[in-house]
Structure formats: C-alpha cells, structure tokens
Amino acid sequence: MYKLRKEQGFTLMEVIVVVVITGIALPSLFVLLGNISYASFSTRMMNTAVNLASSRMEEIQAFKDANWDWYKTIEDFETEESLNDGFTRTTTVEHIDDWDNTGYEAYQITIAVAHQKVENPYTVTMNLTLYSK
C-alpha cells in the first residue's frame, strides 16, 4: 500500500500560476509608475515655467506703475534669457498703434518660458494701454 507522507514545497502548477500572475502584474506596475513619474516631472516643469513668467510680468507691471512715462522705455524689457535648470525666457514687446480699433496705443507684452525637455513653451500675454496721447 501507499504510505501517506507529509509533502513540503510547491507543486509545479502553483509555481506556474505565480509566475504568470507576476509576469502580468509587474510590467503593468512599472508602466503605471513611469506614467506617474512623468506626470510629476511635467507638473513640476509647468509650475516652474508659470512662476518664471509671472515674476517677469510682475516686474514689468511694477515698472509701469512706478513710471508715468513707462511707454518710452518699455521696449527695453524685450530680452531672451537663459535661466537656471535649462529654462529660457523670451520677452517680446509689440507696439500697437490702434488697439482694437479704439484709436488708443497699446503695447502687447508676451513672455514665453521654454525648457528643452518640455514640448510646448508656457506663454502669457498682457496688454498695456496708453490712454492719453
């Protein structure tokens, strides 16, 4: 007759099931972690770009508020800067003779902040009007 013996270890079928489940779960987990990591990086880059553009806009607005003849030298703010961590900030100033057919002069300030690892630059635009002639 057969003797009952106490078996230890795993059967071949149990090992195959564990390998299959692990083979499906781990790649999915790695893809998920990669997507989360990229989203975090992208958000951090965008936040930095927004802060760099906002600080430049605030600088220009403070200059306008402090100088009644700001329109004479506003074009001095037109620059292209290389900033820390690979960011570049481009400020353009465009003079508009007849803003929206109102007969008033205006200056359109556009600030673009770009990074070599981000596809599209963050761009913000502000119009400063010259109401008195």
Fold and architecture overview:
The protein has a four-stranded antiparallel β-sheet with strand order 1-2-3-4. Helix content is 41%, strand content 26%. It is built from one helix and four strands. It has one domain (12-130).
What would the keywords be for this entry?
single chain, 133 residues, alpha+beta, 4-stranded antiparallel beta sheet, 1 helix, 4 strands
Question: Topology of this structure?
Answer:
Layout: H1 12-66, E1 79-82, E2 87-96, E3 105-115, E4 122-130
Number of domains: 1
Contiguous runs where pLDDT drops below 50 for at least 5 residues: none
- According to DSSP, the number of beta strands is 4
The rough form would be described as rod-shaped
Q: Which structural class best describes the helix and strand composition?
A: alpha+beta
Taking the sheet with the most strands, its summary is: 4 strands, antiparallel
Strand order of the largest sheet: 1-2-3-4
Instruction: Provide mean pLDDT, rounded.
Output: 89
Helix and strand run = HEEEE
* Structural Rg: 30 Å
The count of helical stretches stands at: 1
Strand content: 25-35%
Distance separating the two termini: 114 Å
Helix content: 40-55%
